[in-house]
Design a protein that fits this description.
The strands form two sheets. A five-stranded antiparallel β-sheet has the order 1-2-8-4-5, with no helix packed on it. A three-stranded antiparallel β-sheet has the order 3-7-6, with no helix packed on it. It has a domain of 75 residues. The model has no long low-confidence stretch (mean pLDDT 89). The protein contains no helices and eight strands. The chain is elongated. With 120 residues, the chain is an all-beta fold.
Length: 120
């Protein structure tokens, strides 16, 4: 590869996740127009570039509000702010899954962790 060519982006892949909560878990009512909140995390193998990724989770519905953050992680899975920008956008919940766009603006693949909060 010469200096004018860009490396081929690598898609992130799930490596590990937190214990998933089930819809039938007995959780306290939150109040207002939110009946339940769930939080989970997923670590992903190294990736870079722009990708549409999916996280399957049965607590997500078409009317859920889903918040996703992404951070670079070190070899021990600890989040940190490095030089590479990580950007999450276009979050689209559906029945049992959320699709989102990730942009890891770096020339080489980097591992990441996504933290997900679901409001129902």
């Amino acid at each position: 590869m010469d200096a004018t060519q860009s490396p081929v982006p690598v898609a992130p892949r799930v490596v590990e996740s937190s214990q998933a909560a089930e819809r039938d878990q007995k959780l306290a009512q939150i109040g207002g127009n939110v009946g339940a909140i769930w939080r989970g995390w997923w670590t992903w193998g190294p990736g870079n570039g722009v990708w549409n990724l999916q996280i399957p989770w049965n607590v997500i519905g078409v009317n859920s509000t889903v918040v996703i953050t992404a951070s670079e992680i070190d070899g021990n899975g600890n989040r940190f702010v490095g030089a590479a920008p990580f950007q999450v956008s276009s979050i689209a919940p559906a029945a049992g899954v959320v699709t989102f766009k990730i942009n890891i603006d770096w020339s080489s693949p980097l591992p990441m962790r996504t933290d997900v909060v679901v409001f129902n």
